[in-house]
Amino acid sequence: MIYVTGVGPGSEAYLTRRAMDVISGADILIGGQRHLDTLAGLSSEKRIIDADINSLIKWIAERLDRRIVILASGDPMFFGIGKRISDTFAPEQVQIVPGISSVQYLCSRTGMDMNDIYLTSSHNRTPDFDWLLSHERIGMVTDSQIGPKEIAAEIRQRGQTRRIIIGENLSCRNERITILNASDAIGDYEMNVVLIDKQGSVASR
């Protein structure tokens, strides 16, 4: 059986009880190095996720008689590995354990409701900024190629006035949340998610 388990935005404090139960019973734990390091005390066999997902899928398929837990940042079905696993294996072979996404967490920290936010990601994709910035509010999980600085440049290029909220290392000890006008977002930021607000109505907390 394969469990794709959301581990939240970063801190173990945001692991759900269900996620902890699944992880503690794993024969094999698969995840990024950061996640595996936090679970170093478990005796499970461990494998790091790398860019070669096809090889990982083949490796998993040869071990379906074991309890395999794949650790996914945030929520597995929010631009995560959950979709790939669900599309590859039969429904009876996979269970998805939801987690708290980084966008959920950042909205809760800044008091922004999620009712009408367009949610997206820049991981391994180039957003259509003309279409994207036609939305009032956007939540974007970023990567090293398209982050706050690049998003802000696209906003300025279109002559828009936007406020952006940058959440770095969310839920961790070095968490930092910055709220500023897009015109001022010119620096480099650590692992982050970005909220874009056309009205600029979100107050700092």
From TrEMBL:
Residues 1-183 form the Tetrapyrrole methylase domain. This is Cobalt-precorrin-7 (C(5))-methyltransferase. The keyword Hydrolase does not apply. The keyword Transport does not apply. CDD domains: Precorrin-6Y-MT. PANTHER family: COBALT-PRECORRIN-6B C(15)-METHYLTRANSFERASE (DECARBOXYLATING), COBALT-PRECORRIN-7 C(5)-METHYLTRANSFERASE. InterPro entries: 4pyrrol_Mease, 4pyrrol_Methylase_sf, 4pyrrole_Mease_sub1, 4pyrrole_Mease_sub2, CbiE, Cobalamin_biosynth_MTase. GO terms for molecular function: protein methyltransferase activity. Pfam families: TP_methylase (PF00590). Signal peptide: none annotated. Pathway: Cofactor biosynthesis; adenosylcobalamin biosynthesis. Keywords: Cobalamin biosynthesis, Methyltransferase, S-adenosyl-L-methionine, Transferase. Its EC number is 2.1.1.289. One of its GO terms (biological process) is methylation.
